[in-house]
Design goal:
Elements lengths: L7 E3 L13 H8 L6 E3 L4 H21 L2
Parallel strand pairs: 1-2
Length: 67
């Protein structure tokens, strides 16, 4: 994200287990970087959560059919 000079990242659903993107602003402060990224999260959060839940549920069902 820093090397690509991305100005803004928008995502819908936060991943509390592996949400590394939320550490970006912490890294900016710690590393004294000159490039700053605007992060917007929670955009249509419930719809995104539903899509992800359905996707992984279907993926698990498909993998058990192929066994």
């Amino acid at each position: 994200i820093y090397l690509a000079r991305i100005k803004r990242v928008v995502f819908g659903f936060k991943n509390p287990k592996g949400g590394a993107l939320l550490h970006v602003s912490e890294n900016e402060k710690l590393l004294h970087l000159n490039h700053h990224v605007e992060i917007s999260s929670g955009i249509r959060e419930f719809e995104c959560a539903s899509l992800l839940t359905t996707f992984f549920k279907n993926l698990r069902q498909d993998s058990t059919k192929n066994v």
